[in-house]
Amino acid sequence: MEDMVFAEADISLLLGDISRKADFCGVKILRINPQSQISGGKDKTEPVVEISGFKLQPIELKTELSSGYHQLGKFLSQLEENPLIAVSDFKMVRDVLDLSKQKTSLTLRVYVRQK
Length: 115
Hints:
The chain has helices spanning 11-25, 69-79, and strands spanning 6-7, 28-35, 49-51, 54-67, 85-94, 102-113. It is elongated and about 45 Å long. Strands 1, 2, 3, 4, 5 and 6 form a six-stranded mixed beta sheet that branches. The protein is an alpha+beta fold. 17% of the residues are buried. A hairpin with a 7-residue loop joins strand 5 (85-94) and strand 6 (102-113). The longest helix is centred in the N-terminal third of the chain and has 15 residues, at 11-25. The protein contains two helices and six strands.
């Protein structure tokens, strides 16, 4: 489990890992925007959770991707091999410039170790 936990200060390592997986699967990342913390409504942040002795805070990564269906499925499968990463929002539309590809807005919820 320790190998799957990223510290909040190491977001660049997490983004690099996501980028490598996207390249391997044939998914093009058009944009990726990390959010510092997830709001739980009424300006409260979601509570810290403890998993395997780690205190973890959820953050969101908002991404825009371009890929085919199969490449996207492979990419999502690889991301979700880490139990601390999950898809929290997903929207897909056909790419009008390349009909064999889809443009996907994807929000990932990632649990990271607090400072």
